[in-house]
Design goal:
With 258 residues, the protein is an all-beta fold. It is built from one helix and 22 strands.
């Protein structure tokens, strides 16, 4: 058996035996095929835990940052995860309505409404989750529920960016009358608007000159207030594609604002 001391045998969830042994230098290592592997977590001369490869200390650490989070660091620099950095800013919003009989707009995320839980001094929405469910009253009706970001707005119309990966669709006829949708974004969806377009995304699904949305109309937001939409706000549009029935829906998202 390799090493200068007896091995410790542990078993994984499949019942496979894995040796943890102490080598001639006094370090505990994983043993593979009765040979000492070259990967350790060791303590260097400064007392810091590091990943060691082939008995050399690499510049990769797991350290605790100033916020108290464990992070991966290299060359004494913290590697920041853009999602975890702002997890303390995450908030949720939910909106539900029943008996909707015609195409209707709502403001799901209202950037400057103080009744929301996000930082209202921010201007950019970072979306981490979106999900909803809808039930139509008639199987022959066709509905869809879409998230849209205001790219431009004036007293006449607005330019809106549709987010198709967040759509609840009932755009088919038949006995199935309910649709449920959930989308979690592992690396988040940055909805920053700059100069009338997304700053970090190429969007080919914009709707231009939408007259139903302008600074002369108000929509109900998730806080129950009637508000004028503005650039950067995230709208929820419930669209009657075809039919004469009604639809009930709930929709929610998790996000933060910068």
């Amino acid at each position: 058996m390799p090493g200068d001391s007896p091995a410790i045998i542990v078993f994984d969830q499949n019942g496979n035996a894995i040796e943890v042994i102490q080598d001639s230098d006094g370090y505990y290592r994983l043993a593979v095929d009765s040979k000492i592997s070259g990967v350790d977590i060791i303590q260097d001369d400064s007392g810091d835990n590091r990943l060691a490869v082939d008995s050399s200390i690499s510049n990769i650490d797991i350290i605790q940052d100033s916020d108290g989070y464990d992070r991966l660091a290299t060359n004494n620099k913290v590697i920041e995860d853009p999602f975890s950095v702002d997890r303390d800013k995450l908030v949720a919003v939910n909106l539900g309505k029943s008996g909707i009989s015609t195409t209707t707009y709502y403001v799901l995320i209202d950037l400057d409404d103080a009744d929301y839980k996000h930082d209202i001094t921010g201007t950019d929405v970072i979306l981490s989750y979106a999900g909803g469910t809808a039930v139509k009253s008639k199987s022959t009706d066709k509905w869809k529920i879409e998230l849209m970001v205001v790219l431009f707005i004036d007293g006449t119309s607005a330019n809106l960016a549709v987010l198709p990966i967040t759509t609840v669709s009932l755009e088919y006829s038949g006995t199935f009358i309910q649709d449920r949708f959930v989308n979690i974004f592992p690396n988040v969806l940055n909805l920053t608007v700059f100069g009338g377009d997304f700053l970090y995304s190429t969007n080919g699904l914009s709707e231009s000159s939408v007259t139903a949305v302008n600074t002369g109309v108000t929509f109900e937001n998730a806080a129950g207030n009637n508000v004028i939409p503005a650039v950067g706000d995230v709208l929820l549009r419930v669209t009657l594609v075809d039919g004469n029935g009604t639809v009930d829906f709930t929709y929610g998202s998790q996000y933060w604002v910068e």
